[in-house]
Amino acid sequence: xxxxxxxxxxxxxxxxxxxxxxxxxxxxxxxxxxxxxxxxxxxxxxxxxxxxxxxxxxxxxxxxxxxxxxxxxxxxxxxxxxxxxxxxxxxxxxxxxxxxxxxxxxxxxxxxxxxxxxxxxxxxxxxxxxxxxxxxxxxxxxxxxxxxxxxxxx
Length: 154
Prior knowledge:
- This is Alpha/Beta hydrolase protein.
- The chain is α+β, with helices and mostly antiparallel strands.
- The protein is 40% helix and 12% strand.
- The protein has helices at residues 32-40, 45-56, 64-75, 79-87, 95-102, 123-134; strands spanning 4-8, 19-22, 109-113, 138-142.
- The longest helix has 12 residues, at 45-56.
């Protein structure tokens, strides 16, 4: 669920600029070691840098400024939210809500965002679990650090 699905371009009385949903929609158990790492991933500058380098992205495709921005933004997040996401959010089954959105009368284009080097939600897993769920709305796959890791795709 570390990846995101971005939905935008709705055409209705109320339109969306976009929204992000956790992936994958169905609960997906994680190994204990991975859960432990996720719980401390955003606690310090060092842990964020380690997470970006070893879990989230191909840092060869990111500049030092990109990585500094990711670190700064990650550390600025709400401490309770950073703890709750790996403990609760990543384990929640939101498939019914996703089905309601995907079958609504609102036209929503979807772009799935996944890091090229993401070990939590690797590309093949996202394609097999998420794309099958959102097949008709998916426009493409881009790095988790969209516009940074894959600038030509943004």
